[in-house]
Amino acid sequence: MLEFELVPAARRPAEERAALLADPGFGRVFTDHMVTIRYAESKGWYDARLVPFGPLSLSPATAALHYGQEIFEGLKAYAMPDGGVALFRPEANARRLNATAARMAMPELPEDLFLRAVWTLVEADREWVPSKPGQSLYLRPFMLATDPFLGVRPSSEYLFAVIASPAGSYFAGGAKPVTVWVSEDLTRAAPGGTGAAKTAANYAASLLAQAQAQEAGCDQVVFLDAVERRWIEESGSMNVFFVYDDAIVTPPLNGSILPGVTRDSVLRLAEHLGHTVAERPYSFEEWRRDAESGKLRETFASGTGVVITSIGAARTRDGSFTIGDGTEGPVTTAIRDAIVGIQRGLRPDPFGWSVRRP
């Protein structure tokens, strides 16, 4: 079994750490350490290390910089009421990383090694796991091609790493309903592409649409399908759900939608709470029509960063519409409270999702 070499960092003083944890934002502050593991075709995975957080040394010809062979994951560690710490469904992230790696012609990382890498970092930097309501330690495992070459082919060498960032609310202003921009011109992914993979290229493709959303006064963008420009797919960083009296509807995983871990958790929890769940194509016309008629009760989105956030209104070039009265609805609240309760050890965990350590 590959063992981790531990190279301890000089830890920041407790006073400095406390000041940073008071208001960490999202993705701005990083802990003292990171984990790195290297891969070569000739020897497999090797050189597993816990090292001080710091810059990577890369050749200007590094393959990932030129051909986008880079993938990542996102999960969180939570402070438990008994003083322990827990990860939420980390094995699901390990599986998804490998599914993404296969799509991007990259080596799979053994799931056990993924989990040990994440726990090695969490245990080294436990003092950075925040305990305030709404806060967590966001973990970012990622893998990039490191061959120094110019030529379109899969790399033969890779670097896997895990970094950690104490995090507050994903959206500025906290957990209030967001307004989304429906992009009618730009698409995120297409059939046969990489939409179901958590790869950097998909997020790069979403940035212009996200900038347009912000110019329109919106918090996030929602994409339509690339073929008919009719069917709701996903947001730039979230899966989307539509709440009716008789069902919760979400677009099906069609190869161009990311299979979110939180998305799957919502579907299973919703059924556990007594809701009927329908995964089916859902058009923008249906969304607007049912919102305007009042048939649609709520819309919300899910993701590791946001967990659950209510969508209060949607805008396009031709106007806007409000869902319900624009405030968060009871179903959204109940599902968010159920997931957060499990994540933080405040509610029973009927699915065994929370992986705890003392």
From TrEMBL:
Transmembrane segments: none annotated. GO terms for molecular function: branched-chain-amino-acid transaminase activity. GO terms for biological process: amino acid biosynthetic process; branched-chain amino acid biosynthetic process. Its cofactor is pyridoxal 5'-phosphate. The modification N6-(pyridoxal phosphate)lysine is found at residue 198. Pfam families: Aminotran_4 (PF01063). The keyword Amino-acid biosynthesis applies. It catalyses: L-valine + 2-oxoglutarate = 3-methyl-2-oxobutanoate + L-glutamate; L-isoleucine + 2-oxoglutarate = (S)-3-methyl-2-oxopentanoate + L-glutamate; L-leucine + 2-oxoglutarate = 4-methyl-2-oxopentanoate + L-glutamate. Belongs to the class-IV pyridoxal-phosphate-dependent aminotransferase family. This is Branched-chain-amino-acid aminotransferase. The gene is ilvE.
